[in-house]
Amino acid sequence: MLAKLWSLFMGYIVYAIIRKISSAVEKISYKNKIIFNTVWEDPRLDKEALNINSEDTILTISSGGCNALALLLENPKHIYLVDRNPCQNALVELKIAAIKNLDYDNFWKMFGEGVLPEFSTKFYPLLRQDLSPESQKYWDAKAFYFDGTGIKRSFYWRGTCGTVAWLVSWYFGLVPGLKHALCTLLNAKTVEEQKIVYENFVAPKLWNFFIRNIIKSEVYLSWTGIPLPQQKLLAGTAGSFETIGQWIMEQLEIVCTKLPIHENYFWRVYLNGRYTKDCCPDYLKMENFQKLRKSVHKITINTQTITEFLQSNPKTKISTYILLDHMDWMAEHPNLLTEEWEAIFANATKNPKFLWRSAAPDADFV
Question: Which member of 152, 171, 254, 311 has the lowest number of beta carbons within 10 Å of its beta carbon?
Fold first, then answer.
């Protein structure tokens, strides 16, 4: 009984903290801070669907850069990265500079563990020369993210998604037995074992009143990179805004009880603030490091919208478009979607390939 009351109390504290920063959320322009410090879309699915080869010229959204580097391992002709958020592009530039200038061990510490001690004073000066002026300005102020100091030690606790992950991880550590149960879940070897751990030890401690309310709140969804237009689409998928939380719970149950979690690096990094070498994106694996070092020159980064980039580069022909879920963000602006698709087709090669994701049950707005 006392443990349950304690978890409810701490859930209330987390809820109050997130509500406290709600006014800041309303001011997020998605252009003045890192939203995604890692990428949630699985590049393995992209590779399987698109069959990337040496003749492909790819256009995709920068986000955290993880998937662009994974695609680079398929040896495409060129990759154009586009993002209207200069902070996301600054992150990709930093990853590329680290690949060029660090050895693998330090690269792993930086982006595998999220901590490279003395980064801002010892290593950042080595990377700064390979950054654009705008990215230099950003990391001059934020290089300490990797130092491993302060209450948010890991880089993966930084940015808006990282801040939410840090708060949630902090809460998990305060609920008796929950952190241990989650670690047991991550280390499960079979889906059957996962199901037992989740249903008997994780779910009963996790889904209290406050967490149920947090995960359906506009504040929480905004800080995890889901803007209001996409929240509306998600509400359509879930049935209503009130049932978004229940829908999220159901999706997490699928992840924990029906899919092998030992290879799910997306959840691992946000639960622990770090990857492991057995569970990480392809760009962080030792056997791929030298391949990336030899290939990063084939990435061009642009701080523009997709439409702006294509219209300003009419001679650049794209064979493969990987558009993530950004069209959800424009769901209420059909004129912008029309303009973008016109630019996409104008710059496309013969027989182009397209891939995008949506929170909607069907993407009829596209």
Answer: 254
CA dihedral 238, 241, 246, 252 (to 10 degrees): 70
pTM of the model: 0.89
The CA distance from 255 to 274, in Å, is 19
259 vs 262: CA distance, rounded Å: 9
SS3 assignment, position 29: coil
Query: pLDDT for 277-309, tens place per residue?
Result: 999 999 999 999 999 999 999 999 999 999 999
Q: Which of 23-27, 92-96, 171-175, 255-259 has the lowest mean pLDDT?
A: 23-27
DSSP, residue by residue, 168-210: HHHHHHHSTTHHHHHHHHHT-SSHHHHHHHIIIIIHHHH--HH
Tens digit of each residue's pLDDT (9 = 90 or more) over 311-351: 999 999 999 999 988 888 777 778 989 999 999 999 999 99
In 3D space, the residue among 45, 93, 85 whose CA is nearest the CA of residue 227 turns out to be 85
Collect contacts of 280-286 with beta carbons under 8 A, ≥24 apart: 280/112, 281/38, 281/39, 281/43, 281/66, 281/69, 281/70, 282/43, 282/69, 282/70, 282/73, 283/66, 283/69, 283/70, 283/72, 283/73, 283/95, 284/107, 284/108, 284/111, 284/112, 286/104, 286/108
Beta-bridge partners for 276:
279
Q: What is the mean pLDDT of residues 24-39?
A: 72
Output Rg (C-alpha) for the chain, integer angstroms. 21
pLDDT tens for 140-190 read 999 999 999 999 999 999 998 999 899 889 988 989 999 999 999 999 999
274 with 156: CB under 8 angstroms?
Answer: yes
C-alpha 226 chain-centroid distance: 11
Task: Give residue 243's pLDDT.
Answer: 84
Tokens, residue 107: 């690269």
> Helix, strand or coil for residue 357?
coil
* Torsion sign (Cα): 129, 132, 295, 34: positive
Contact present, 42 and 50 (Cβ < 8 Å): no
Distance CA 91, CA 64 (A): 6
